[in-house]
Amino acid sequence: MTDIWPDHLFLVGCGNMAGQMLRRWLACGLDPARVVVLRPSGKAVAEGVRVVTDYPASLPAGTTILLGMKPYQLGDVAGLLAPLCSADMRIVSILAGTRLADLRAVFPAAAEIVRAMPNLPVGIGEGVTALHADAAFPAASRKAVEAFIAPLGLAEWIADEGQFNEVTALSGCGPAFLFRFVDALARAGEAIGLSADQAGRMALATVRGSASMAAMASESPAVLADRVASPGGMTRQGLNVLDADDRLLKLLTDTLVAARNRGEAMARGE
C-alpha cells in the first residue's frame, strides 16, 4: 500500500471505536512509530505505539489529531489540546453529536476539521465511515482523508451536516440491529425445531453469505429477494409474512427514527 498515512497521528482516547480504527490502520501498514495515544490509564494499545498519560509539551508540525474520547469530555480536552494545535494540523473527530461549529469554537487554530462517523466493522476493513467537512475544505485534503479512511471500508461524504444523526442511526447503530436480527433468526430456527447451536451457526453463515452475495451483485437486494422466491414456494410464503402491511419496513423505520431522535436529544444535552 502506498504511503497514505499522516507523518504523525495523535489519538486522544483509544476506546472501542478509535481502537478498532487504529488496529486496522496498523494492520494495513501504518508505522506504529508515527502514532502517539493519549490514554489516562496508560494501558498499552499495540506493539510499537507510544502511550502517554498526559499531553506533550508540543505536537510535530503536520500532525493529524483523532478525537476519540467521549463527547462530554470535549471541553476539558480542548482546554489542554487547543494550545498545541496549529494551522498545519488536521483534526478528525468521531465525537457523536458534536458539530463542526462546536469543534471550530474550541480549536480556533486548526485550519482543517473533519467529522467522521465510523461503525465497528472498520476494525476488519468492512466498515462504513461518514465524513463531513465545510465547503472550504480543500480538494487535496479531501482526497487525503479519503485515502486515510479507505482501509476501514466504505467512506461516504455527507454534504448536509444535519443528516449526521440519520447516518449514525443507519450505519453507526446498524451493526447492533443486524446482530439482533441474526440472533432472532437463530432463535426462530430453534423455535421450529432445530438445536440452538445448529440454528446459531446456520443463521450466522446465512447472513454472512447473503450479505457477500448482495455486495457483489449488480441487482438491488429487493430484486435478489424476489429472484430467490419462486411463486407458491416456501421462500415466497415467508416473504409474504415480512411484506404484509410493510411490517418489516415499518419496524426498521421506527428503529432508525428512535435512534435518530435519541441522537438529536443527546446533541441538546438531554
Topology (SSEs and partners):
Blueprint (H helix, E strand, L loop, with lengths): L8 E4 L3 H12 L7 E4 L11 E3 L11 E4 L6 H8 L8 E4 L6 H7 L5 E7 L8 E6 L6 H11 L3 E5 L6 H9 L1 H18 L4 H21 L4 H8 L5 H10 L3 H21 L3
Parallel strand pairs: 1-2, 1-4, 2-3, 4-5, 5-6, 7-8
Antiparallel strand pairs: 6-7
Helix pairs in contact: 5-10, 6-7
> If strands are numbered along the chain, what order do they take across the biggest sheet?
3-2-1-4-5-6-7-8
Instruction: Give the helices and strands as they follow along the chain.
Output: EHEEEHEHEEHEHHHHHH
State the major sheet: 8 strands, mixed
Overall, the morphology is elongated
Radius of gyration: 22 Å
Beta-strand proportion: 5-15%
Number of distinct beta strands? 8
Quaternary form: single chain
Low-confidence stretches: none
Mean pLDDT: 94
Head-to-tail CA distance between termini: 44 Å
In terms of structural class, how would the helical and strand content be classed?
Answer: alpha/beta
Q: What does this 3D model show about the protein?
A:
By secondary structure, the protein is of the alpha/beta class. It contains ten helices and eight strands. The chain has helices at 16-27, 74-81, 100-106, 139-149, 164-172, 174-191, 196-216, 221-228, 234-243, 247-267; strands at residues 9-12, 35-38, 50-52, 64-67, 90-93, 112-118, 127-132, 153-157. It has an eight-stranded mixed β-sheet, sandwiched between helices. Helix 5 (164-172) packs across helix 10 and helix 6 (174-191) crosses helix 7 (196-216). The longest helix has 21 residues, at 196-216.
